[in-house]
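Example 3.2
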Amino acid sequence: MPRDLLTETKISKGAKPKEKEYLLGDGDGLFLRVRPTGAKDWLFKYKSPTGIKKIGLGSYPDRTLA
C-alpha cells in the first residue's frame, strides 16, 4: 500500500504551527511533532507490553530525514 512519506519540502512548507500541537507521520512509528511555538521534534512511537511508548529522537532541523 503506498504511503505519503515526509520529505524536507513537505516539512519546511507544510509543517506550520497551529493552536495545538500535532503529529505528521512518516510510517512505521516515526512522527514529526509540530508545537504551537513552531518547534519541531522527531518522535518514535511503539507498542510495549505496558502500553504505547514514545521516544524523542531530536529536534528538526538538527536531525533530518537523511
